[in-house]
Design goal:
single chain; globular; 6-stranded mixed beta sheet; disordered C terminus; Dihydroxyacetone_Kinase; kinase; glycerone kinase activity; ATP-binding; alpha/beta; 18 helices; 45% helix; DhaL_dom
Length: 584
């Protein structure tokens, strides 16, 4: 369990502050995470990494000369928001673009994808790569679905070394892809981890048993077996990795970088015993160990587990891996001399600017805030039930994440209403707050939904029924674009898309928005219940698909709750106006 904390909700914030204080010569804190506190070469690509907190030294511990330029840090086990990622990327940008690198988790994919769109819209060249090294999380035929675990370090290091040499953004991305393609990891777990303040671990493994192939959040692996001896475990790890070598690689004579990674509670002495056995088996296969790393590189709080990573080097990748680096948690080669980073004008907080809005849009903003209050109330009221549904085949945090999001969105909406913002700005700011505080895939999805609708209705016109329907349509397709979910995948999309279709059809018939929304909300409730008969095809629930049969998707249920709550906030008005009214 986690022993030392104050207020659990402040744990990540206080952890970052302490980390920066202890490593001030290397890193400095910026909104959303940390960047190098040393000067980087102007005109070079910046490598910005990130993910949820709780995995130290990933991700902040890997920021420094020769490694990452910045790390966006989400809440505990929750992806950073697009807003956080953009803030770190802009602070780290050296003039030649940014490569965003992260593990392949649904929330990270959504948030980093959104951040890339925003950065490019602001004129900053940006590419991204999702690391996919965990061989047990998907088959060879679906490698793009594999998780990113300890192999993150290989990709981050190679890309950063290429950037230090002055390679272009396209060349750095090519190096990162090559490193990802040639890196494989397999992990095991003996017990789960317990977050600060939690009474129970996120997952459990029966006493005397081991989860073979488990992920760093307790995602299921291949099977559960009795805990073996070190020699037997080494046989299993090496066998599975050698059955999944990259195309074109010949095992005998291959030069390999090996990482034996502890996940939190397995002691270094145990890792060394296991490595002794692993090294023998690799040498027997004719593998040349070009570099060996034994220690903690990607952890999971106090999770008792470990992973073995093999990076099958090309000549270029080996040189990049062995290039000097100096970060709080990973150092190699001679120390890199760099001047301290000076305070820049952009480091100071800028005064809040609220876009101009018409009187009718500000009046509509009052209605929007009433709707935010209503949807927040229904989510908070159903937090436990949403968590229960999610726990059937997921990690059970959907209710917690949604509550964090709606509270932040509600507070932001009220704040910007008081500043005189229009309806569009209120929704856009609520979207950023929701995504920022909720984290995870649900935070990103609701950020997309509210931001798209806010953009669609704008700050000048009173929201007309046709404009609202069109904005909801754009939001649905935006979620599918960024999240890659399709109808039938057992996600929120199985409610959002039908809701949008019915809303548009009813508006086209000439119904006022209040009635059209009500009809669409009724259809959404039925669609949410229908997801009980689907099997999840993406996300963390996919490996436990059969377990979820008979239970609706938590994201679909929460969406149906929200659109129904908003429906109650409409009051019918003359058909000629076809627009919403205040919450009664």
């Amino acid at each position: 369990m986690t022993w030392l904390f104050n207020n659990p909700s402040e744990f990540a914030k206080e952890m970052v502050a302490g980390f920066v204080s202890a490593n001030a010569e290397v890193v400095r804190q910026v909104p959303g995470g940390v960047i190098r506190n040393t000067q980087s070469q102007p005109g070079t690509v910046a490598i910005v990494i990130g993910g949820g907190s709780g995995h130290y030294p990933a991700f902040a511990g890997l920021v420094g000369q020769g490694l990452a330029h910045g790390a966006a840090m989400g809440n505990l086990f929750a992806s950073p928001s697009a807003q956080q990622i953009c803030a770190v990327a802009k602070a780290a940008h050296n003039g030649a673009g940014v490569l965003l690198a992260f593990g392949n988790y649904a929330g990270d994919v959504l948030h980093f994808g959104l951040a890339r769109e925003r950065l490019m819209a602001e004129g900053i060249p940006c590419e991204l790569i999702a690391v996919t090294d965990d061989i047990t999380s998907a088959t060879k035929n679906e490698m793009e679905k594999r998780r990113g675990v300890a192999g993150d370090l290989v990709v981050f290091k190679a890309a950063a070394a290429a950037a230090e040499r002055g390679a272009s953004l396209e060349a750095v991305l090519a190096v990162a892809r090559q490193a990802n393609d040639r890196t494989r990891t397999i992990g095991v777990a003996f017990s789960g981890c317990t977050l600060p303040g939690a009474e129970h671990p996120l997952f459990t493994v029966p006493e005397g048993r081991m989860g073979f192939g488990m992920g760093i959040h307790g995602e299921p692996g291949i099977r559960e077996i009795a805990v073996p001896g070190a020699d037997e475990l080494a046989d299993m790890l090496v066998e599975h990795l050698l059955n999944d070598i990259p195309p074109g690689v010949s095992v005998n004579g291959a030069r390999v970088g090996a990482i034996l990674n502890g996940l939190g509670s397995v002691k270094y002495e145990e890792l060394f015993v296991l490595w002794h056995s692993v090294q023998q088996r690799l040498s027997e296969q004719g593998i040349i160990l070009a570099d060996i790393q034994v220690g903690e590189f990607v952890t999971s709080f106090d999770m008792a587990g470990l992973s073995l990573t093999l990076a099958w080097f090309s000549e270029e990748l080996e040189a990049l891996w062995l290039a000097p680096a100096y970060s709080p948690a990973f150092k190699r080669g001679s120390a890199i001399v760099a001047q301290p980073l000076q305070t820049r004008d952009g480091d100071e907080l800028q005064q809040e600017v609220v876009p101009a809005a018409s009187e009718v849009s500000r009046a509509a903003a009052v209605r929007v805030v009433a709707m935010m209050d209503a949807l927040a109330d229904v989510v908070i009221e159903n937090e436990e039930e949403l968590g229960r549904i999610d726990a059937v085949a997921g990690d059970g945090d959907h209710g917690i994440g949604m509550v964090r999001g709606v509270r932040a969105a509600r507070d932001s909406a009220h704040h910007y209403l008081a500043l005189g913002a229009g309806a569009g700005t209120v929704l856009q700011q609520a979207a950023d707050a929701w995504a920022d505080k909720a984290g995870g895939s649900s935070g990103a999805i609701w950020g997309v939904i509210l931001n798209t609708i806010g953009t669609g209705i704008g700050n000048q016109q009173h929201p007309q029924a046709a404009a609202v329907a069109r904005a909801v349509h754009d939001a649905a397709h935006g979620v599918m674009h960024f999240g890659k979910a399709k109808p039938g995948d057992k996600t929120l999309v199985d409610v959002l898309l039908p809701f949008s279709d019915v809303l548009s059809a009813e508006v086209e018939k000439g119904l006022p928005l209040s009635q059209a929304w009500s009809h669409a909300a009724c259809h959404a409730e039925q669609c949410a219940q229908n997801t009980a008969q689907l099997l999840p095809k993406i996300g963390r629930a996919r490996p436990l698909a059969e377990r979820s049969l008979g239970t609706p998707d938590a994201g679909a249920v929460s969406l149906a709750m929200i659109v129904t709550a908003v429906s109650r906030c409409f009051t019918a008005i003359p058909d000629s106006e076809k627009e919403g009214a205040v919450c009664q």
